Amino acid sequence: MCGPGSSCTIKHTQPKPTAMSTAAAKAVEKAQAKSDAWLEKNEEAVKSLRSQHLAVEAELEAKSIELFAAFYAKRRAETEKIPSFWLRAMVNHPTLAVFLQGAGDQEALTYLTDITLVRGGDKKDLREYDLIFTFAENPYFTEKTLTKSYTVKKEEDTEDEEDYELTGSVSTISWKDDAHNLVKANPQKIDEEEDNMEPGSFFNFFVKEEDQFAVGSHLRDEILPNALEFFAGLIDDSDDEFDGDLDDESDEEIDLDPRPKKKSKAYAPL
């Protein structure tokens, strides 16, 4: 008998063909053919319904942004008083922690006072978003804010509103001197043939267009809406929602396979 902690194999047996099952199979096949014919004839009607569905989702998402804005403003007023709040929240995330191992990264991020998520951009397209990092005066760079923007990459060969990719922006960081230039000191190195990588400095996230390891979506979908929980260590590393393993070994391997596209969640700007 299968029980907790034990392994077992579930056997699937195919029913023997009978006159009744054969007749049923033919009935199902006939019904499927009718369904296919209807779909081919009414393809535009189906597209219209799907578009209406997406419009309702967008309306709900916009309303969610409006309703949560006040709460996130209150949260920001409190988190700005907490030393290294955002650094600690990210370090407690099993995937993002891997990208915070570059020499100087964590010290630089102690000056991070806020991360703001802005949805929609200039075109009010809620698939697009900006991540705005606000910093106190620090010895590393002169910018008060660093922004990573994601916009929809236009595809000429698709009309599917749900089939899209996001492309990231590139920011220039004005390092105060070479000694504090974390990107130069810790470049990101990717060897696709050997299927391994060296994350380098976290600040490569801002200066590289491609977000190959979905750092932005981890921030948008996991860190930002659950910042207090990650800061307090209340989210278990084994939670399926935040699947990832953090190993103390310096030669940790990271999956370089492209991540599947994910639909944006209805989270408000912080």
Automatic annotation (TrEMBL):
Residues 241-270 are annotated as: Disordered. GO terms for cellular component: nucleus. InterPro entries: NAP-like_sf, NAP_family. Pfam families: NAP. It comes from the Eukaryota. Residues 260-270 have a biased composition (Basic residues). Residues 241-255 have a biased composition (Acidic residues). One of its GO terms (biological process) is nucleosome assembly. Gene3D superfamilies: Nucleosome assembly protein (3.30.1120.90). Belongs to the nucleosome assembly protein (NAP) family. This is DNA replication factor/protein phosphatase inhibitor SET/SPR-2. It comes from Phaffia rhodozyma (Yeast).
